[in-house]
Here is the input.
Amino acid sequence: MTRPWWLSLLLFTILVALVSSTDPVKNEVNVLQSLKSINASNANVKQCVWFAMQEYNKENKDKYVFLVSKILRAQLQITYHMEFLIDVEIVRSNCRKPLSNDVLCNIQQKSKLEKKLNCNFLVGALPWNGKFTVLKKQCDNV
Here is the structure.
């Protein structure tokens, strides 16, 4: 099936705008759209949360996998890529690392292993290419 010519033109225009949004002299990124709240059920938000949690669990020294219990806020900014600023509440699960795909994890509740954190992730994304990068991460105990 052929793609309409206007769709190709639109994608090309977006690509040119994104590439030209970096000022190499100042080494600064031009913001094409400043932070704007978006729905937490947005598919790109879900992809970014999934990616951020994969990275968090890889880097975290805890023996257990952490899961997202709530997405508290999601915002989008557009620079040379899409930047998602996502605030989440995460909790320790009963699943030990490494996690296999066929295991269902439950949240640790009412035990000495119960742990809850609020995390702020800034994820750079080119979702149409499947490229995601955690640019910033901060987590604090609740």
